[in-house]
Design goal:
Residues 10-151 form the Glycosyltransferase subfamily 4-like N-terminal domain. Keywords: Glycosyltransferase, Transferase. InterPro entries: Glyco_trans_1 (IPR001296), Glyco_trans_4-like_N (IPR028098), Glycosyltransferase_grp1 (IPR050194). The chain is an alpha/beta fold. The chain has two domains: 11-147 and 323-338, 3-Layer(aba) Sandwich (Rossmann fold), CATH 3.40.50; 151-320, Glycogen Phosphorylase B (Rossmann fold), CATH 3.40.50. Helix content is 40%, strand content 15%. The strands form three sheets. It has a six-stranded parallel β-sheet with strand order 9-8-7-10-11-12, sandwiched between helices. A four-stranded parallel β-sheet has the order 3-4-5-6, with helices on both faces. Strands 1-2 form a two-stranded parallel ribbon. The protein is elongated, with a radius of gyration of 21 Å. The model has no long low-confidence stretch (mean pLDDT 91).
């Protein structure tokens, strides 16, 4: 059960869809129940009215539970997830796993403490996300990372001399992803070393970002592509040299994981979920603020030996815990634990 699902596009939506697919392939009977309006699909139940902007308001779940009689309920939740909350309140008698996909802050733990009440098995996607949940709930919190199919990202990347290092960033252009931190990092680094940059994604911050680029005369070397399909994102990453993930409150960082699989050194915040699969000077460089991220980017641009060594390591290895077979096994253990 998830507030957010396709055709909305984001990390939770992609993960829920792909997890259901690999579970079906493994022989499980999986139904996805969501409050997000959209077209029908096999194995999918949309609950609630159609509303403007496809808001996931949802509706009553009693009939759904009666028809399906699930053995285990897997609830996928963010920070504010009214549909997930309704599922946890309605389904107290069903063995449940709740996966939190966001970093908590403020009083949100009190809401979940009332809903979970010690009955659901709790997981999240990274150690960064697990720490505030453990403090708020005082229950075991299991870390199961987001899963990914590694094969499409492991194609051989031809090395071509392209002049200035190309920096890539991919993500929704919304405040939580800190798009203006990204632009400040690029601006700071661009003053010190020659770089080009490509920003993939769309969202409410896009118009203001374009104005920022024009005002600071960065639009000649920073290109904004808008939203791209995943195959097109792979093409962008195949041509890039470094990836930047600036958000401090990134619970996991699927785009950064994809870049790491594509062989790019990743520059990211050390307090985010990206730190679970990016180690300093192994898979990339980490920092504690925008200035640190700019320094890390400048270092990678100026130190070709380090940049190429990290790229070679990323191309030759994969984050085993994030592969779908490992994620599927981890969730099956949690389902058994919840029962």
């Amino acid at each position: 059960m998830s507030d957010c699902y396709l055709p909305r596009l984001g990390g939770i939506e992609v993960q829920v869809d792909e997890l259901a697919a690999v579970q079906r392939a493994a022989g499980h009977d999986v139904r996805v129940v969501t409050g997000t309006p959209g077209p029908p699909r096999d194995g999918l139940v949309r609950v609630g009215p159609r509303v403007p902007w496809a808001l996931p308001l949802g509706g009553p779940l009693d009939a759904v539970l009666r028809d399906f009689a699930p053995d285990v309920l897997h609830v996928h939740a963010g920070v504010v997830s009214p549909f997930a909350w309704r599922a946890l309140a309605t389904c107290r008698d069903v063995p449940s796993v709740v996966t939190v996909h966001s970093l908590w802050a403020g009083p949100i733990g009190a809401v979940y403490r009332r809903l979970i009440g010690g009955g659901a098995t709790v997981s999240t996607v990274s150690e960064a996300a697990a720490r505030p949940i453990r403090r708020a709930l005082d229950v075991p919190v299991h870390v199961v990372p987001n899963g990914i199919d590694t094969a499409p990202w492991k194609e051989v990347r031809p090395w071509l001399p392209t002049g200035a290092v190309l920096v890539a960033a991919v993500g929704r252009l919304a405040p939580r992803k800190e798009p203006f931190t990204l632009l400040r990092v690029l601006r700071d680094a661009g003053r010190r070393v020659p770089i080009r940059a490509v920003v993939v994604g769309d969202g409410p911050a896009a118009p203001a970002m374009r104005r920022y680029l024009r005002y600071h005369r960065m639009d000649g070397w920073v290109r904004m592509t808008g939203r791209l399909e995943r195959a097109e994102v792979r093409e962008v990453l195949a041509s890039a040299d470094v990836f930047v993930a600036p958000a401090r409150r990134e619970s996991f960082g699927l785009a950064a994981l994809e870049a790491r699989l594509a062989g790019l050194p990743v520059v990211a915040h050390e307090g985010s979920g990206v730190a679970d699969f990016v180690r300093p000077e192994k898979e990339g460089l980490l920092g504690s603020c925008a200035a640190d991220l700019a320094d890390a980017l400048v270092r990678l641009v100026g130190d070709a030996e380090l940049r190429h060594a990290i790229a070679a390591h990323n191309e030759a290895t994969e984050p085993e815990r994030c592969t779908w077979p490992s994620v599927l096994t981890a969730f099956e253990k949690l389902y058994e634990l919840s029962r």
